[in-house]
Amino acid sequence: LDEFYGLVAGWSSRVVAVSQAVADEIRKFAPEANVEVIPTGLPVPKLPAPERKSQVFRVHDGTPVVLYVGLLSRRKGVLDLIEAARQAVAKRPDVQFFLAGRDGGVRREVRRAIAAAGLTANVHLLGQRDDVPRLLTACDLMVLSSWADPLPVAVLEAISLGVPVVATRSGGCSDMVIDGGTGRLVPPRAPAALAEAIVELLADEPRRREMGRQGRRHFETHFTADVHAARFAELLDAVARSSAASERAVGEISGQTIANAAGAEAARRKAAVSAVIERLKAAALRRREQCRRTAAFSRRLIERAVTAAYTLRLIR
């Protein structure tokens, strides 16, 4: 992962993470990465009238209902949820747990755990459903038991509909669920803490309602499709401005580099010409010296010739 994130960071002006947890994970492997957190956004749903539990879950309307939505997988902590359900039922025998989601490899193990804990009357597997909003509006609270989850959309759906959430403090859950405000956060792989939070909220309906209202406001402020699009638009605009500034800077640097290169080339040529001139001067000086010596020699020869001629004439 360090090599992958390093390449991503090296090739990208920005790296977008869907949650702070994902951003922190990226920075572990690529500290130099310029990471922006932009969560997934969903359309703002209209708040429907609550569905009757008797019509949705086939239980009495006064029955406390806890809903799990997600893959039935080990990473989602589903077996921890079954243990939490066992402990919660020990304190609230009337509570009903409904798990909606396709099999992620542990469905049989989950069934065996339900039977072994004596929970067949309290824990129900619904399979994959396409009416999750309807299930959410009929439950008292939603639960998520993940060990790690970048940004579970099921939690977004829950808070968008004003449903309080009990989730593990893992991945993007910490961004979406404000502990004590929009729901409860507990450590991952801690069934006892999960059970305690579930029982605590089931016993306080006014608090659940207030958490639902705060969750809806939190969703509208940070997690709508419009907010998501606006933040991406701001990011792209910032990247475009940064790129334009970089191009101008590169252009200026390139221009200066070219000017410097041209100046360096001119200086090199000037130096070369100067060297040639100096060599020519030296050659001229040598030639002049040679000429001077030749002239002096010639003068001596002439003088000698004149002297010899004058002597011969005297002799004659």
Task: Explain briefly what this protein structure is.
With 316 residues, the protein is α/β, with parallel strands linked by helices. Helix content is 59%, strand content 10%. Helix 4 packs parallel to helix 5 (107-116) and helix 4 crosses helix 9.
Number of helices: 11
Order of helices and strands: HEHEHEHEHEHEHEHEHHH
Describe the strand arrangement of the main beta sheet, using strand numbers. Answer: 5-4-3-6-7-8
Which superfamily, in CATH terms, is the homologous superfamily of the largest domain?
Answer: Glycogen Phosphorylase B
Q: Return the average pLDDT rounded to an integer.
A: 84
Straight-line N-to-C gap: 117 Å
Beta-strand residue percentage: 5-15%
The CATH topology assignment of the largest domain is Rossmann fold
User: How many whole angstroms does the radius of gyration measure?
Assistant: 43 Å
- Biggest sheet layout: 6 strands, parallel
Provide the CATH top-level class of the largest domain: Alpha Beta
Instruction: Write down the domain tally.
Output: 3
Characterization of this structure:
The chain has 316 residues and is of the alpha/beta class. The chain has 3 domains: 1-38, no CATH class; 53-225, Glycogen Phosphorylase B (Rossmann fold, 3-Layer(aba) Sandwich); 266-315. The chain is 59% helix and 10% strand. It contains 11 helices and 8 strands. The chain has helices at 2-11, 20-29, 53-56, 78-91, 107-116, 132-138, 153-160, 173-176, 191-202, 205-222, 225-315, and strands at residues 15-17, 35-37, 65-69, 96-100, 123-127, 141-144, 165-168, 183-186. The strands form 2 sheets. It has a 6-stranded parallel sheet with strand order 5-4-3-6-7-8, with helices on both faces. Helix 4 (78-91) packs parallel to helix 5, helix 4 packs across helix 9 (191-202) and helix 7 (153-160) crosses helix 10 (205-222). It starts with a helix and ends with a helix.
